[in-house]
Amino acid sequence: MKFVDEAYIDVAAGDGGNGCVSFRHEKYKEFGGPNGGDGGRGGHVYAVADPSLNTLVDYRFSRRHEARRGEHGMGSDMFGAAGDDITLKMPVGTIISDAETGEVLYELLQPGEVITIAKGGDGGFGNMRFKSSINRAPRQKTPGWPGEKKHLKLELKVLADVGLLGMPNAGKSTLIAAISNARPKIADYPFTTLHPNLGVVRVGPEQSFVVADVPGLIEGASEGAGLGHQFLRHLQRTRLLLHLVDIAPFDEGVDPVAQAKAIVQELKKYDKALYDKPRWLVLNKLDMVPADEREARVKDFVKRFRYKGPVFQISALTREGCEELIKAVYQHLKARHVAEQPAQVDPRFAGEPGA
């Protein structure tokens, strides 16, 4: 499912430096002439498409971005230095539009693409620029031109990296609310989630991923039971599935292992490719299990479920174990991203066999 991540930022390019009025003053040169230099240009604001980013979450915490102004001109024919530019890293696919008019200004479509979103002002002219045959001692100068200032809307359409899978009331909505910025409806009855929810999980600076929570599945979903499996299509482009299981069901007659196996079978019936995706087991509601029984219950579940992949024990309500889970997920996604990048071949050996 496409996820629209939005952010609003204010950018301001640097103003140009002012020109200078100055004259040469040297011994034996009574009329040295004008030597006031021009001001330096203001710094530009650039945007670059960074393929390592997939959300705009950082711009929700940092909204004002200003480049430095240019230095003023000086005497002795010295021009002012240009202001420092700033570069804003944005995910590939970011749409930059005017926040007031809605007009689309730029689109970052190619990795590494660089565009100028705010141009710095030109520097003003010093009096040496106004010297002529009839104006030998000009005292004119011009101020620097102002830099561009814009109020921009950033919009990004991305695909979810991680999908949450499980029975109704397995705690998927509680988990996505605990680890991300999503605020889905949470209640103590089944099928609280009626449509997919997406949230951005922030692991660290410029480290984040998108997680999707879809309505719960029940046995017979492929035949239309419950909400059916119509929402499973939103997980088809995810890189990792987290299978949430309620390790302490309210009804003691319910077998979590049987429910987990039923979910896996429904997944296999719907799409073999989705079934073959990396799938981690996340045992939720650990806070409902006495501490001295947790280890035995988890071992019994894994043994009966015949699962050999990564297992995480969490409590989405108390957030116990959630930090370890999101860090492991991010490292997995990062490794997948690196593995999918084309190999860099040294051009000196590009023609050799095996290169």
Describe the structure.
This protein has 355 residues and is of the alpha/beta class. It has helices at residues 172-179, 256-270, 272-275, 294-305, 322-340; strands spanning 2-12, 45-50, 64-66, 86-91, 94-98, 104-107, 114-118, 149-159, 162-166, 197-204, 207-213, 240-246, 279-284, 311-313. The strands form 3 sheets. Strands 10-11-9-12-13-14 form a 6-stranded mixed sheet, sandwiched between helices. A hairpin with a 5-residue loop joins β5 and β6 (104-107).
Strand order of the largest sheet: 10-11-9-12-13-14
Number of helices: 5
Sketch the major β-sheet. 6 strands, mixed
Give the % helix.
10-25%
Overall number of strands: 14
- What structural class results from the helix and strand content? alpha/beta
Secondary-structure element sequence? EEEEEEEEEHEEEHHEHEH
Brief summary of the model shown:
The protein is of the alpha/beta class. Helix content is 16%, strand content 25%. It has helices at residues 172-179, 256-270, 272-275, 294-305, 322-340, and strands at residues 2-12, 45-50, 64-66, 86-91, 94-98, 104-107, 114-118, 149-159, 162-166, 197-204, 207-213, 240-246, 279-284, 311-313.
Structure characteristics:
single chain, 355 residues, alpha/beta, six-stranded mixed sheet, 5 helices, rod-shaped
